[in-house]
Amino acid sequence: MIGFPLRGEKHSIPVHTVIAVLSLLTLSCVQFFLLYNTYELKNDHYYLAEKGIITADYTAAIKNDKVMPGGGAILDKYMTGNMAALEAAYRHGRGDFERLSQLVCDSAFRDLRVAYNIDSLLRVIIRRRRLDPNIRYASTIESLQIAFERDQYVSLYQQGGSYPLIDSTLQTKDGIRLGGTLGSLQANNLARNVTVSSSVDHSYLISFSLYVDSYDRKSKILRLMMPAFLLSFLSVASVVLLYFITFRNWMRQKKLSEMKSDFINGITHEFHTPLSAIIVANRMMQKEKVLTNKETLLPLTEVVQRQAERLKTLIGQALQITTMNRPALNKELLSVNQLLEELLQDYRLQATEGKVSITLYKNALRDEVLVDPFWFATIILNIVDNAVKYNDKDNKEVVVTTFGDRKGLHIAIEDNGVGITKDVRKHLFEKFYRSTGGTHSRVKGLGLGLFYVKQVVDSHGWRIDINSVVGKGSVFTVSIPL
Q: What value does the mean pLDDT take over residues 300-323?
């Protein structure tokens, strides 16, 4: 089939790609910040039912005490017992007072750490209340102040201050850490903050806290956010899918537009070639010397005949492009072996490209099938013509074999041509498809021959298979169920 090679199917679309990627990144960032803010909001308002129960029981346990059961006695021992010394140091000078107050606090905090019993208290509460045992907690002291005169407090320890004489292992940014397994202390896991003071002379004020949280707080919040995660994922996935579908359709339309443009340009060029030959031959025939010389006139009429036939073929192909979806079939019960013998005999007469050997082996015993002879010729001649054209050997060989098995009748058309790569094989039956490079770039065509073959095979309800080795040749097998 005569035609032209289509240009390469490469598309450069950096602008569209950049815009799509930036849009996706923007959407992803927006979704991330929304989810992050939602997580922080749920984290701030996270409600632990166990925390309320523990807070109530802890408050009842230290109703007449400080920090923990028995903690008041320890603090009274150091604060009341050192009241006079602290007051004297305060009256004498700030340096002596600072040193003595840190030593008193260090001793009091150490004894509180040694006598620490909130562990056992919480175990009792959890067991009695049948609470989730996977609970973490922490107990801290934020402030300790002393009043030599009523309601006039002087700071002995304040959270965040610098106290080099107090045990550094007790000091944290959250205050004096007495015990517990909770690492990060935040406002949302504060169970109870208590400030105890007496509005009398020679008293003290202490502020302490209990923090309670679950071990799997983050996983619980993430589980609560699962619907938001799913909606976010679905929204991003939907946008990506819509973009992909739109982009794919756009690429198909772009490819189709380019193929149409190539076809129009190529077919115009192909029409000019036979028309130019006919015009030239006609002008030559109009010359008086030619008209009177039959030996000169006859070759020119043959040129006109050949080029007119070529033009007719091109017009037919152009019309078939727009009209052919599935060919209408006029089936007859015919012998495939006989049809092949006639078709190959005619083809041998017109084969003019070098040494071409076409052999037919009629091995099929049952070869009568319902077939449209015109479209059957389209199948065979297109495959054989490609086998000859896409062959760079000095001796071009085509072997056609019919054989049968339980599945039906098979026609194998084997050649010793250039072969077909896997990538080309995927697109071989597509309309207008033309491979580029090597022998393919030198062979003219519209990229319709094998498209017609596939259409006819499908219309008959047959199957076509391809086996090929690059550099050695190809085998096209048409399978016909009986």
A: 70
| 384 contacts: CB under 8 Å, gap ≥ 6 | 344, 347, 358, 398, 400, 413
Question: Token digits for 76?
Answer: 């009274």
Rounded to two decimals, the pTM is 0.45
According to DSSP, the β-strands at 135-149 and 203-214 are antiparallel
Phi and psi of 431, rounded to 5°? -65, 135
Please give the structure tokens belonging to residue 138. 């922490």
Q: Tell whether 134 and 209 lie within a shared domain.
A: yes
**What amino acid occupies position 278?**
I
248/231 same-domain check? yes
C-alpha span between 119 and 126 (Å, rounded): 11
In angstroms, the CA 264 to CA 141 distance is: 88
Which tokens is 355 given? 């040494």
pLDDT in tens, 422-448: 888 888 888 766 665 555 555 555 566
Alpha carbon distance 244, 250 (integer Å): 10
Q: Which of 338, 353, 342, 347 is nearest to 444 (CA)?
A: 353
Q: Domain total for the chain?
A: 3
CB of 475 closer than 8 Å to CB of 464: no
Question: How far is 385 from 23, CA to CA, in rounded Å?
Answer: 51
